[in-house]
Amino acid sequence: MSATIWHNPRCSKSRQTLALIDAQRVPVKIFPYTKQIPTADQIADVLRLLDIPAIELMRTGERLFKELGLSKTDADDVLIKAMVENPILIERPIVIANGKAAIGRPPENVLDIL
How many domains does the chain contain in total? Predict the structure, then answer.
């Protein structure tokens, strides 16, 4: 078994989640989503694995969310497009393992899928 983490090294929760995965001795692939931009299909796949609407994967508190005129009632396709164009809006970290996904907020959330 291995895991993939959508990782932002500047985020403390992302670093803590990566350390937690390492402590479990699970091989992990790091996907630096702010440098290697995910496609709309990749984001849609994560949403399916998480079984959540796009708005729940967004950092709505980011100033950019408001500057772009985004709303919590926008359609998923609008929000996914915004995340592709502005990956900093993607909630982090996301861990994918065993055909499931979890958001590491708090980091312990990912233990259930490892």
Answer: 2
